[in-house]
Automatic annotation (TrEMBL):
InterPro entries hit by this protein: Acyl_CoA_acyltransferase (IPR016181), GNAT_dom (IPR000182), MshD_Acetyltransferase (IPR050276)
Entry-linked PROSITE patterns: GNAT
Stated name of the protein: N-acetyltransferase domain-containing protein
PANTHER family: L-AMINO ACID N-ACETYLTRANSFERASE, L-AMINO ACID N-ACETYLTRANSFERASE AAAT
Pfam families the UniProt entry points to: Acetyltransf_1 (PF00583)
One Gene Ontology molecular-function label: acyltransferase activity, transferring groups other than amino-acyl groups
CDD domains, alphabetized: NAT_SF
N-acetyltransferase domain location: 15-172
Taxonomy of the source species: Bacteria, Bacillati, Bacillota, Clostridia, Lachnospirales
Organism: Blautia hydrogenotrophica (strain DSM 10507 / JCM 14656 / S5a33) (Ruminococcus hydrogenotrophicus)
């Protein structure tokens, strides 16, 4: 995967996006915690929240299912973000053929275009493996909703707090 540049702290930074290695799968726990959207002024939840069954579904035994795919963003040989998918009965579940997506970047690397590039790489990877759709859930107040829309995700349903969004090949 090719190297890219982002403007960060008044300078350009080089980053790359690549497949996550099996030895890096335990990092998904950290990125799962980072993926929790915390609105301004709200106290972050305790770190052990990720041990709850409804969150562990995203990372438990990752890599054991044929639909498990993960990419990372790397800056100066440090992993700073991850995007991963699997078919699971999570908040964003559509059906048993549509992977659900999770994405996370460390705070200091957000807003640079890295997340958008990770999403696009994941969509390319999924298309190459024959997937036509991917879903995600996102809190309505999360700024990332606009990024998802720009990439081609549409809102398909929601509740008081969250949207379920779907990307479909050929629709955009």
């Amino acid at each position: 995967m090719k190297n890219r540049m982002a403007f960060y702290k008044e300078k350009f930074m080089e980053y790359s996006i690549r497949k996550m290695t099996v030895s890096e799968y335990p990092m998904l726990n950290d990125f799962l915690y980072e993926a929790i959207f915390i609105p301004d002024g709200i106290e972050p939840p305790p770190r052990n929240i990720i041990t709850s069954p409804e969150l562990q579904i995203y990372v438990d035994r990752f890599g054991e299912l044929k639909d498990d795919f993960a990419l990372v963003a790397e800056v100066e040989k440090k992993v700073v973000g991850a995007v991963w998918v699997r078919i699971m009965n999570d908040y964003g579940h559509i059906d048993d053929k549509t992977p659900s997506l999770a994405i996370s970047l460390y705070k200091e690397y957000r807003g640079q275009g890295i997340g958008t590039d990770m999403m696009k790489e994941m969509l390319s990877l999924l298309k190459a493996h024959g997937y036509k759709r991917v879903s995600l859930s996102v809190q309505k107040t999360n700024y990332a909703v606009e990024m998802y829309r720009k990439i081609g995700f549409d809102i398909v349903r929601g509740n008081e707090e969250e949207w379920i969004m779907l990307w479909q090949e050929g629709k955009h």
